[in-house]
Please model this.
Amino acid sequence: MLETTDSANASTSTPAPSKRIEVQSAHTTYTTCAYCGVGCGLTAEVDPCHRAVTIKADPHHPANQGRLCSKGASLGETLGLETRMLTPEAYGEKVSWNQALNTVSDTLQTIINQHGPDAVAFYGSGQLLTEDYYVANKLMKGFIGSANIDTNSRLCMSSSVSGHKRAFGSDTVPNRYEDVEQAELVMLIGSNTAWCHPVVFQRIQAAKEKNPSLKVVVIDPRRTETCTIADLHLPIASGYDVVLFNGLLAYLAEHNGIDHDYVETFTEGFNNALADATKESGSVQQVADQCRLDEEAVATFYDWFLKTPKTVSLYSQGVNQSSSGTDKVNAILNCHLATGRIGKPGAGPLSLTGQPNAMGGREVGGLANQLAAHMDFSDAADIDRVKRFWNTDRIADKPGYDAVSLFDAIHEGKVKAVWIMATNPVVSLPNADKVKTALEQCPFVVVSDCVSRNDTLSFADVKLPALGWSEKSGTVTNSERTLSRQRALLPPAGEAKPDWWIISQVAQRMGFEHAFKYQQPVEIFREHAALSGFENGSEGKRRDFDISAYANISLEAYNDFQPIQWPVNAEHPNGKHRFFSEGGFFTPNKKGQFIALTHRPPAHSPDQPYPLILNTGRLRDQWHTMTRSALSPRLNQHRPEPFVDVHPDDAKRYALQNGHIALLSSAWGEMYARVQVTDRQQQGNLFVPMHWTEQYASHGRMGALVNPAIDPISGQPESKHTPVTLRPFRAEWYGFILSRHPLSPLECAYRITIKGDGFYRYELAGMHPPEDTTQWLTTLPVS
Ligand code: SF4
Model:
């Protein structure tokens, strides 16, 4: 619910929203979507008596301007209590909040006393609100004194963060969504935008209808739904983006396509980057051969880029999730810097983040190698600054474990306690069976989540019920730097509490009462805003992230908060749309940096016994590990089972047909999936969706297969390139069950659970049929 009392700390200096919109009428509340990084605004009509919410698009929100996708529109179907965690539990027993919080704080403190602060860790999520994230980061880095806090955003966009920092000196997104409507050329690189960021796709589609000369180039090994609007699709060989963009840089130089004024005035490193690019890529023909592309198609792409000043590059997980993800990002940024196409209307690079608040996490320092407010461990002055601001003598002074290394450290017994917040690493991390073993062995596992069951909760010693999307109140930041309010629609489920409250209560019990006295999210937001402006610009060092205009925001203004692109400070009271068109980079000499790049092939090559390359990704109508989206019968209709896309030649080679069940295996694990034979897939390449968990599929966790190699700079795993093989799973029996009630997990090799409208469907297959099927069916346990 919206807070109703004003604050003593209120100020009249908070910027007035540019367009004032009522944020709550009798039954309508303005909020933001729970799902992807587009960050759409929603209106919610609430019937509190029936816990019913009707969702519509917010016509005023700058991200979507009245648009919505299938996931956002179905949010109202996901708010029931049947899967919610309603009370705290410790060691299998229901306990009071006081007991649960004491158990967490006492055990963490005991482990810290015995083994030091680096023996404990937090693992968070881009689902957390900024206020939650800020408090978690402050407790771990500022007061426990370790930087062992990382987040599932590491799996999503940490290569973009490190690419931005290398090129710009800061993690700054230079452009905004509106630029796709002003561009003449839109490049979609490693992004199935149609399914993963649907409203951005709708905006491009509408722009193309309005301006038929707008060209769209899709660079993706798969022919995805996004290609339906492509004028040119480059089905690049997996992992070869640096070759393609090095080739583009060389081509631009050769064809008089460099903006020498911009390069000389605002950047450095161009000559080295060009020398490496030229040496690396060779002729257009050589680039095409290396990338396994048609030469004419590459030449067309280069020619369009050369001749189109208004070019926007949107890129996503296909670029980031790679052992050379940071280099791929910089290869794209090099071409934008070389042409001065950055931070201009209709021209610039824009990384699309996966999660609703991945950007908020970046702002508060949710990654283990960051400090808060875009400050860094690499600068002793930053560490000292944050230490003084938080008034602590325990601040961490070096980066902690990134996601993959963190679970390795748990596996090795170096980290003895982990607190997992709003994420499901047993499904989503690479080499996920090893993550399972790590959590099994870990002496103390805390999970705070809003659901009662998921694959990770099975390993929790303490389970803490957190508020769900419809109950939370705070702020989020989307891919284009727009800050928005997420507002509570419904009362808490059972005894569920806000994440910021849970973390603050543990912090207080650990002896840090003075620093964690928060009573409401606005107090945390004020502190976060104040830190962003604290000594920002001192000693000539400005930081990009600055929302200091909100350092004294009143409760009323916080409740009334309207979407705005940061920075929001004395210089930019109404926000700022774009960066870097006139230089102003955040490097020590204020110059943008070209990065000289050499192609590095993926960490593991396909070879016997794993001759195929596995790609993984999102579906249109599921989200992450399905804890929310699989509650919607409508969304479950889109793709009800985990599948594997197989090229017709590979299907023939492996004796597979449409509808068969295949067993995929890699050096790390196995999964079953239903075969879809399709020429959208390149020969030698497979694709599986990332979503299925043990809750919904007996053996459908793609993470079990995935290569744990990481990018050496960003720590992001190579989720798009795992050597695998596959073979038919020849079951002795197949069947399905329709039930009015959910059934407890059924023991058989292939079991898929699909929630329908008023029923549950179970797709089954196995090796040993029950001797008495009738008896088996009538004794199935109801969940
Ligand atoms: Fe939600 Fe993303 Fe769809 Fe917008 S595009 S409604 S943020 S899932």
About this structure: The chain has a mean pLDDT of 94.
